[in-house]
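Hi R.,

Here's the chain you asked about this morning:
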Amino acid sequence: MSERSPAPAGLALVESLVNTLDIETGRDSLDTADGRARFGLTEHDVPGARALRESLRAVLLAHAGHPPHREVTPLGDLLGQAPLLVAVDDHDGSASLAPADAGPLLSRVAAAVAEALVAGTWARLKACEADTCHWAYYDRSPAGRGRWCSMQVCGARAKMRRYRAKEL
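And the predicted structure, written out as tokens:
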């Protein structure tokens, strides 16, 4: 839905997972084999991936200053089940957090969130405030006050609704 460029580094994984569901149409790409393959999921993994997706969406809404869209499992509870390791490069001594098991989606998301926390980019990943959207986007605005995934779609709709409400 968004014309924005993808989130940086590992946050692109989080962004693409949240955006597997089009709230307006109800289309969920995790229902398809191709959609699951993008994340290395089997049909058996889908319920857990959906729970993770909706917990992430609630946090991204909070990043944008909005309440959760519905009751979800707290993201910290889910990520706490994904052990991370400190990986140290033998050549330059740089360190990073990596999933203890790189296969499960939960582990890869936990590593991406940890990396974004260290980089200072985690709070810039947000969910669109439009109730019919809640699409994830990376807020690149200088002040970090972006509200919509797309000014041309969600932003324009919100501004038009406000304008029409003033006319009445």
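The chain has six helices and six strands.

Let me know if you need anything else.
M.
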